[in-house]
Amino acid sequence: MSQGSIAAGAFVGFLLLIALCWVPFIGPFIAGVVAGIIARGALRGFMAGFLAGITGALILGLALAILGGLIRGFIGALIGWILGFGIALTSLISVAVICALGGLIGGLIKR
User: Using one digit for the tens of pLDDT, what is the confidence trace for 49-61?
Assistant: First the structure.
């Protein structure tokens, strides 16, 4: 039985997370399960799902912060940055945990 790759699982999980981000709970969960299956193993799947969730949330938050910073004026830019990073923090807590649990289950499936 060969070991899977955490990096490959995290990359595929990230791509699926971007594609399925519009589905509130099921999208990150499916991305985590697929990342866990690719990573092969419970701990490896957990790590792959968690990395995919963190990467997706950070990129989303950074994009929202940059787009919010394009608002004219100092106060508008400050509010945009605050909202962008607030959304990133919320996404880190929710999406990364859901992806990690999906990765754990996916890793147990392909053990």
Answer: 999 988 888 887 7
Query: Where do the structural domains in the chain lie, given as residue ranges?
Result: 6-109
Record the tokens describing residue 25, joined without a space.
């709970």
Rounded to two decimals, what is the model's pTM?
0.81
Burial of 101 (0-12, 13-18, 19+ CB in 10 A): buried
Token pair recorded at residue 58: 């950070």
Cα–Cα dist 14/102, whole Å: 13
CB-based contact 69:83 (threshold 8 Å): no
Q: Which of 93, 88, 40 is nearest to 63 (CA)?
A: 88
